[in-house]
């Protein structure tokens, strides 16, 4: 199928203006994760675009207050494992943040809410499908799974279940998140777990009855050092004591102290190590008469996108293909933030993330994407799909 690459690349070049126009329209439509009506309009526009390209699409209700999700497939009757595109079309910016029609291109860089994170990635997937269809590609199905509430971790919706139901059994998955400015592809993303710790002491007057008090803040201070010591950079594990509150006035021995902890992981076994260690730290008393409770939820947010042999093999295969066609070799990088790539990985589908155009500063008013890389990434992914029969996990 690689013999069709030149035709596919020519198709993409011939539709550059169309790609940018759709990119512009999607950015100008706006919509943060909590603005269901706005994000649903984006979903409907994408539904129409993918349907017109021959993709059998469905808008999926994932919750009364949550934006709809979009799933689709083209070539459902084709042999072979499917290629899967994933990601989201919500942004962190509420509509109107940047004024009317915020999309603009200046010196080869596109600006506007979601101009990088991650509306152009969806444009790439659409035009990869169109380009492949133009040469009669029929080796395997191609699926899309896009959500409207990724930026809030799919909290309050069933979008997670949609990814779990649709993301397994793939030959390869490309999560179309923001491309990294150094041209690396993301091969892993950390799992985050939050802990809420509360120390219960005994209040007392700091002058008249100091010895009768049990200082909850001092107890927490001892424990805080133990929590922080759980960080292990060699394993990609960080434990951050980020928020602490306690006491009422300076002349009272504080009877309570609360702490919020953010922990991040690159390895599954580290999640359990830290959980058990935090529970043991909370059981230990430095000051007699204090007690400590801890709350956490390991199921919230995204799973760990662990760097697996399949992911590394897919990165090697991608580099083999793209360098043959004159593109630069990609490095592999683990990211701290989470993404939907984790769902594909946990289901056993080889996946790479950060497959969108290159840029920087997502989630800020400086967010930009390099326009030319929109077309480069479309050509690269098309070439990989054309050659996917040679990838050892694709068959």
Layout of SSEs?
Elements: H1 5-14, H2 16-29, H3 36-52, E1 56-60, E2 69-74, E3 83-88, E4 104-106, E5 109-111, H4 119-134, E6 142-147, H5 159-166, E7 172-175, E8 179-180, E9 185-189, E10 191-200, E11 204-205, H6 216-228, E12 238-246, E13 252-253, E14 256-265, H7 268-283, E15 291-296, H8 309-324, E16 332-335, H9 341-346, E17 351-352, E18 358-360, E19 368-370, H10 372-386
Parallel strand pairs: 3-6, 3-7, 7-17, 8-18, 9-16
Antiparallel strand pairs: 1-2, 2-6, 4-5, 5-19, 10-14, 10-15, 11-13, 12-14, 18-19
Helix pairs in contact: 1-4, 1-10, 2-4, 4-10, 8-10
Rg from C-alpha positions?
Answer: 24 Å
Quick check: average pLDDT? Answer: 96
Query: At CATH's second level, what is the architecture of the largest domain?
Result: 3-Layer(aba) Sandwich
Supply the number of structural domains. 2
N- to C-terminal distance:
15 Å
- Unreliable stretches (pLDDT < 50, length at least 5) are none
Write the CATH homologous superfamily of the largest domain: Zn peptidases
What is the C-level CATH assignment of the largest domain? Alpha Beta
Beta strand %: 15-25%
- What fold name goes in the CATH topology slot of the largest domain? Aminopeptidase
Bulk shape: elongated
State the total count of DSSP E strands.
19
User: What pattern of helices and strands is seen along the backbone?
Assistant: HHHEEEEEHEHEEEEEHEEEHEHEHEEEH
Give a structural overview.
This protein is an alpha/beta fold and 395 residues long. 33% of the residues lie in helices and 23% in strands. A hairpin with a 7-residue loop joins β18 and β19. The chain is elongated and about 85 Å long.
């Amino acid at each position: 199928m690689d013999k069709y690459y030149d035709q596919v690349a020519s198709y993409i070049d011939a539709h550059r203006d169309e790609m940018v126009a759709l990119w512009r329209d999607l950015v100008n439509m706006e919509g943060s994760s909590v603005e269901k009506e706005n994000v649903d309009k984006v979903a409907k526009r994408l539904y129409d675009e993918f349907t017109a390209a021959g993709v059998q699409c469905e808008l999926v209700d994932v919750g009364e207050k949550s934006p709809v999700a979009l799933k689709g497939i083209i070539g459902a009757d084709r042999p072979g494992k499917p290629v899967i595109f994933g990601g989201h079309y919500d942004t962190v910016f509420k509509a109107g943040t940047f004024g009317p029609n915020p999309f603009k291109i200046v010196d080869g860089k596109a600006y506007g809410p979601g101009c990088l994170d991650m509306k152009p990635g969806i444009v790439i997937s659409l035009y990869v499908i169109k380009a492949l269809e133009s040469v009669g590609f029929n080796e395997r199905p191609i699926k899309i799974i896009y959500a409207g509430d990724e930026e809030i971790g799919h909290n309050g919706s069933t979008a997670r279940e949609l990814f779990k139901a649709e993301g397994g059994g793939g030959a390869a998955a490309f999560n179309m998140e923001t491309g990294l400015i150094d041209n690396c592809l993301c091969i892993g993303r950390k799992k985050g777990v939050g802990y809420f710790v509360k120390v219960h002491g005994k209040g007392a007057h700091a002058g008249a009855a100091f010895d009768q008090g049990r200082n909850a803040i001092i107890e927490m201070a001892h424990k805080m050092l133990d929590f922080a010591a759980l960080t292990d950079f060699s394993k990609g594990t960080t434990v951050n004591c980020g928020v602490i509150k306690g006491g009422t006035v300076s002349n009272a021995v504080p009877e309570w102290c609360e702490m919020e902890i953010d922990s991040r992981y690159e390895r599954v076994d580290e999640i359990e190590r830290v959980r058990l260690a935090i529970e043991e730290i909370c059981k230990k008393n430095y000051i007699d008469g204090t007690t400590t409770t801890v709350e956490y939820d390991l199921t919230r947010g995204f799973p760990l996108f662990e760097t697996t042999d399949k992911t590394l093999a897919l990165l090697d295969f991608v580099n083999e293909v793209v360098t043959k066609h004159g593109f630069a070799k990609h490095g592999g990088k683990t990211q701290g933030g989470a993404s939907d790539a984790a769902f594909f990985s946990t289901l056993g589908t080889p996946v790479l993330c950060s497959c969108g155009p290159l840029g920087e500063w997502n989630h800020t008013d400086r967010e930009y994407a390099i326009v030319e890389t929109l077309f480069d990434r479309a050509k690269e992914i098309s070439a990989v799909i054309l050659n996917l029969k040679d990838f050892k996990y694709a068959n």
